[in-house]
Amino acid sequence: MRRLRFWSFALVAAIGLAAPLTPASAQARPIQCGPQCQLAWQQQRADALPRTRLYDAPDPLPWGPLGQLIRQETVSVYQVQGIPVTATRIMYHSRTSSGRDIAATAVPLVPPGQPPAGGWPVVVDAHGTSGIGRDCAPSLMRDLYHGDQMLRFVEMGWAVVAPDYAGLGTNGRVEFLTPPPRPATSSARCALRSRPEPAFRTDGCCGAIPKGAAPRSV
Questions:
Q1: Which fold has domain 51-217?
Q2: Which of 23, 196, 206, 207 lies at a 20 to 30 A Cα distance from 149?
Q3: Cβ atoms 67, 193 nearer than 8 A
Q4: What pTM, to 2 d.p., does this model score?
Q5: pLDDT tens digit sequence for 116-125
């Protein structure tokens, strides 16, 4: 599944990079998309979710401290390995690499029932490459991109915070490969503030390539 998704992202990148280099008078060459490429596109379209108003950041964006909640919505559109998942999407204040205030989105997942004494331990799922367009946000994928590994943590009694990174889902410049990993760390801060204490504690976190260093800053 991940390999098929990579093929579709690579195809989009190739089209986008090649287009400006093609003279207008040159005859357009058809894009080659074999059976594996076609299957990848079909799976990606089936997995895609429409953007809601949550993803439209206020313009202008009033300044807010790092991790402050802007808005949230509860949705029941996710399905991971055949299991329906109800979750809350959040938009919160993050920072660009230059320190500018920016809106970003994330999905916190929590175990069912009441939190244990001291709160749930928290894991940040800092996702790997999902693309560089607004619709490439993991929260806009029906399976949450890394939803299978996220649910394993939830089943073990951990809360999971899955940031999209600025520019994925929200409008604005993509901060996916730009250090420091503030969208990941600020999403955890926002999730920690989104429920009454003591719902969460911060015993440990984890991350996937290329943002594996992000949890060290939480």
A1: Rossmann fold (3.40.50)
A2: 196
A3: yes
A4: 0.73
A5: 888 888 888 8
